[in-house]
Amino acid sequence: MTFTFWEVRVTRPDDVLGADFLWGVSTSAFQIEGAFTAGGRQPSVWDAFPAFEGQDASVACDHYHRYREDVGLMRSLGVGAYRFSVSWPRVLAGDLEFYDRLVDELLESGIAPVATLYHWDTPVAVEGAGGWLHRDTAHRFAEYAGTVGARLADRVAMWIPINEPAMVTLLGYAVGQHAPGKALLYDALPTAHHLNLAHGLAAGALRSAGARAIGTANNHTPAWPAGPSDVPAAEAYSDLHNWLYADAQLAGRYPDALADRLPIVDGDLAIVAAPLDFYGVNYYNPTRLRTPSEGNPLPFELVEIEEYPKTGFGWPVVPSGLSEMISLLRDRFVDLPPVYVTESGCSYPHSLDDTERIAYLDGHIAEAVKAGARGYFVWSLMDNFEWDSGYSQRFGLVHVDYATQQRTPRASYEWYRDRIRQ
């Protein structure tokens, strides 16, 4: 098969990165693909994690079988790019053909493929060998990255090795809210360095395979002190959530308060901080912190942000926090690569007339443009399996009836389509 379309149309990395503004949507493999059948993919840590109300992602949105329909929805929406993730457990089972088909379908529709290699679905076999607590996992991940790159690098426009490493460390290993469900507190910190190392090693493997545009997708939140005396608490939280990853990837260093806790080997930080072609910001809300109460083993406590409206998930809606965060990044990193908002969205009840989601997107897109971001990817194209919350939260521009798998565009889908056309 030849890829004249790739060479001529809009999906070359230089075309995509040079676009005035890149409109996109995002999903992740575990949350939408389904097709967890014998031989289809190996189990991930999320298959082994306690289910929410007995729900699982064995079928999810059945995107594995319905991807052409879903790409058709993107084509009608008019997006220039689709950010999806590749399932490490599926690739270990020998199935890369699905992503071949998906990428070809996207290109034929004039949509740039943006591939994330890891969106939290660690194979059970890898976790059983130590997971992200072990340095060897970073090298196994790099081997996987090389395998995927060798197959898809000629056609994927933008690459993101690891999605939101902060959430893997904080929720998966420090407090146990996410898979693999470990509650290690500060003993989880080695995972942060191993995730950063995996990012750097994978970036190198992708470039060796011919990938031409490599970035990242870090979750960021402005850390607001509850009062003047709570500034140290906010700074401690920001070190853990924001700078533990951005500092390493963009400047080859770690926050002073955390560096001594990390298993750094000579040469690691040079690998982690290899130059990036773009920087992805995943933003949902700011976080308010105060000095911890007695007996709290952490140097901060989270405080509710009450003065803003809330999403269906209970997250405060603060569009200005997005431009605030991008400004903080620009102030901290003089040579910050082009910034893309690689995830931003909201969960609301299943109504098709989702005016609250429209208001959310309108405000956040305006702040992204104001901050000089080069693109915005809505989370998410469709409703999906929302990790520890199962199917109780609906982030989609497209409503999914999980019993029938019928897709129905919401009012926000129509709004986003019109916004793109403008």
UniProtKB/TrEMBL annotation:
Its EC number is 3.2.1.-. The keyword Hydrolase applies. Keywords: Glycosidase, Hydrolase. Transmembrane segments: none annotated. GO terms for molecular function: hydrolase activity, acting on glycosyl bonds. InterPro entries: GH (IPR017853), GH_1_N_CS (IPR033132), Glyco_hydro_1 (IPR001360). PROSITE patterns: GLYCOSYL_HYDROL_F1_2. It is an enzyme of class 3 (hydrolase). Belongs to the glycosyl hydrolase 1 family. PANTHER family: GLYCOSYL HYDROLASE, LP05116P. This is Glycoside hydrolase family 1 protein.
